Amino acid sequence: MRFHVQHAAIKRKSFQLIMVMLLLVSLFLSAVPVRATEGDGTSAKDEQEIYQKLKTGKRLQQEEKNYVTPEKPTVYLTFDDGPSKLTGKVLDILEQEGVKATFFALGEQAKEYPDMVKRILKDGHTLGNHSYNHVYKELYSDFQTFWDQIQRSEEIFADIADTRPQFVRAPGGTYTNFDAYYYYLMDKAGYTVVDWNVDSGDSKRVHVPANEIWQTVKDSPLEHELTVLFHDGTGHESTVEILPKVIEYYKNLGYAFAPLTTDVKPKQFQVGKSKWSRNMSAAHFQQLWEETQQYATVHPHPSLQQVKEEPKNTDEQLAKQKVAAAEEESPLLAIKPTVPLKIHFSQWSSVTLEPAQYQLRSNRIELSLRFLIEKLGGNVQWQDQTKTANAHYGIYDIQYDLPARTIRAYALGNNIATYSLADMELREGTMVVPLRKTIDSLGGRITDTVMEEGRREVAMAFRQFYILKDNNSILKNSLFALAG
């Protein structure tokens, strides 16, 4: 009898213990989704609102990020689909030319060429993630597959070189492949998706001839920042062949080269009508949301650069800037031309500068700010007390601050760009500035350059609304009116 009583008591205690454990497990599981959303500061209700907005097909306006506009026009060379047996040749050329670039590598290829992944990083280039196998029908059938491939490749890069690339390039680019969900989830996971604004055309078919790639690059529009698409995967021998000529071309136009960093505003295509049949349910979105948030918590990428305060013109800072300016200019002494320079402002308007009216510095054309602006039809005011020049043309104003070596560009009175440690020089009472930088700041672009032994010509183009004639509405917002 006593045995049966003890046995019953033990059973009751065991049952109570099991119930307590089940209660604790259920409480834990119910808390997990709450933590996943609270970690991002987003409630379940907000999550559903976001889902409904994304369902319309439009990208959500993400948190404003702060990027740095380079003072000099810059080319970001990018290479997709490697590494391969050609990657070493590309790296050799870049090393010889003193150029840094970005490589969007496939996980599948990285496993085959791990030493190339290590060399890309050792040589100071940026490594990006280009998925695992580049198979479109897998990557764009569902975000989950795309995400899994990015994670799979990332683990390979981590094993090879202890790195987790923040930059991602979608095979084939994002246009018609990505939808609003893809963009949103990648952004929330901390990735930066990068497209391009110059396509070399080296992958539009198998074995594109080198001269065709060259012509495509040369015919591409010029902008202040160019993200150029090349490929270093198998079969792209023509890319390797033409690469030195492309680098020389951009150097002659005054471009610098740099790898992609979080300071660079990424080129991204608009969201187009998807060519893939996909459906995203609310439940699936929640699952992906939680998965991407968990990744962001475990593997936080470096945050984008915070807003930098504009340096004040203290004596110490000015002294540092003068030293920096001297260091920059010492290897780049100006060359006095011997050939006139013809500048084509349009099909119907041009001007010829005598050799004494301009100079060359590291293949960059420099000339009088007043001469250039007045030939365009604008005007310039010099403030001797502050040593600043205000150039006005159409809807644009540019302020050249000589003591701070800073250029500020305005459109209708609104600041649109600021360039620090900018190239400018006061020579015999004349403000001398780079031609390309000034045209870029006025909303135009250089369309062609000829720098031959006996012939030098530059052509430029402006959109029609950039060269509106001055009227009261425009003038009241200009620096001239604001200063007066």
How would you describe the overall organization of this protein?
Strand 1 (74-80), helix 3 (87-97) and strand 2 form a beta-alpha-beta unit. Mean pLDDT is 82; it is low at 1-5, 28-39, 303-318, 320-333 and 464-484. The protein is built from 16 helices and 21 strands. With 484 residues, it is α/β, with parallel strands linked by helices.
| Rg, nearest Å | 29 Å
Uncertain spans: 1-5, 28-39, 303-318, 320-333, 464-484
Q: Based on helices, strands and strand pairing, what is the structural class?
A: alpha/beta
Give the end-to-end Cα distance, rounded to a whole number of Å.
Answer: 108 Å
What is the number of beta strands?
21
Relative strand content: 15-25%
Q: What global shape is seen?
A: globular
Largest sheet: 6 strands, parallel
Whole-number mean pLDDT: 82
Fraction of residues in H or I helices: 25-40%
Count of helix runs: 16
InterPro entries: Cu_amine_oxidase-like_N (IPR012854), Glyco_hydro/deAcase_b/a-brl (IPR011330), Mao_N_sf (IPR036582), NODB_dom (IPR002509), Polysacc_deacetylase_ArnD (IPR050248)
Protein name: Polysaccharide deacetylase family protein
Organism: Paenibacillus chondroitinus
Domain NodB homology: 73-258
